Amino acid sequence: MALDFVLPSIHDNDDGSWGPSTSTLPAQFKDIPYAPFSKSDKITRIADWHDPALEPTTGRGGRTQGVQIRRQGREAYGASETNAFGYVHEEDEKSFSLVDSGARAGGVRGRAPVRGATGRGRGTPLGGRGAARGRGAGFGRGAFGGRGGRGGGRNGYNDWNKPQRTRDSSVTISPDWQILEEIEFSRLTKLNLSVENPEDLESHGTIQAYDKAYDRINTRNEKPLEILDRVRYNTSTSDDPIITQLAEKKVARIFATDAIISVLMCAPRSVNSWDLVLDRRGDQLFIDKREGGPFDYITVNENAQDPPADSDDPANINSSGSLSLEATYINQNFSSQVISPTSKAYQPNPNPFYSAEDETEPLASCLYRYRKFDLSVGEDEELDLVLRTEVDAYQGKKDSLVTVKALNEFDPRAQGGAAKALEWRKYLDTQRGAIVAGEMKNNSAKLARWAVQGVLAGVDQMKMGYISRANPRDAQRHVIVGVQSYKPIEFARQMNVSLNNGWGIVRTIADLVLKQPEGKYILVKDPNNPIVRLYKVPDDAFDAEDEEELLPIAE
To answer: Subcellular location, in the record's words (predicted)?
Structure first.
């Protein structure tokens, strides 16, 4: 008797997706995600009833033994072990274990990027044997790269596990500020503008000769740093009477100082937060600093891998704030000490900020040179920038100008003190190249700004003093252990500072503000990310802060 053949029923998926329809799915299988097969499974094998563990091995390195070892290991189910079905059956089939993806994370995160490594080469960072026994001055692209020979690279087994440091912004961002632009440093580094030699407009102030005796100081013939009361001004752009006169004559459209422009030109190297106030008046732009802001102080080891820690304790002499005050104090006293008191003073015009009625201390040796730079791109365009640049002394002839800067060494055992660095008072004479390379790495932003300031001022030499604490635990007494001379343009080239890129940054920021209506704007460097942001602020945004500081305290 023949049996009737009946086709099985086919359940079509109404929504057209792959897999069974939700309407025909049995109740016990609902809300369960699809679990893919193991990558090692063959799609042609439906069932496998034999147990390889019960099969005899074929000897050392045999096929069956190899399968057994593989089956005992961990298998990847689906595309990732983090899948909800990524489990492994034990022999008793009673245990269930989730795969912890963190077990492999250390292998990826263990190679943390070295923050602040400005060199692109693979030279040995400071602290390795290669840096201590390097050849030459240690400058160039490979002198302080990210990865190096012995002693560099990993910088500690658990460096990747250190908590991320959170910095504070240099200015409090008000909620009523309107953000106009956000620019990443990666975009700033691609800008380029070629600027010709500037035009000298005026010179004001008084300078004296540099004392050449300080060039002979070394670790065996050190000299104490003296405390000298000299009046030195750090006036912002809008408060400069000479710039006000030049602006009234329509000499240029943009006005600033060399300290402000150098920060903009070296912005991609900066780590700490800073801010600039941009005042748009008519068709002119004034770039100012805030009084008491970051421009009034000098940073220490800003670009170091482990920078100085922040602290509210005033007794902590190795905190970032205390070190910044110490560095500013050292620079002011050192620049006054290296001036020859018996030299003839050169004064083309009086100091525009000095008032004999208000000041009792003598003036510091300083010459203000007002120079005009042409930032225009086409022949039909006129966009000039007037800068107030500063010069500290002259050497030999009066037209051979010099700027004076100072690097300071503190406790090497403290955080941010570069514990593997060479001590200046022992190795500065014999291994100066390694020490300079370490300073270029840890203070890349500061040194680049100093070099750019020297180029903008048109000086012939930059005198760099090496100042160390007489006692690592005493931040009041210091000694000069060495002085080195550099040509600013060569020093900038050795640090891979591109002046054309810097001018491109200045021109880009100026164009952004000049396209806006009249008013006040502020450019802020993000404290924790390589980003700058442009805000529109009220005209009295910072005047209110000044009034609050001047209010009397109620009894």
So the answer is: Cytoplasm
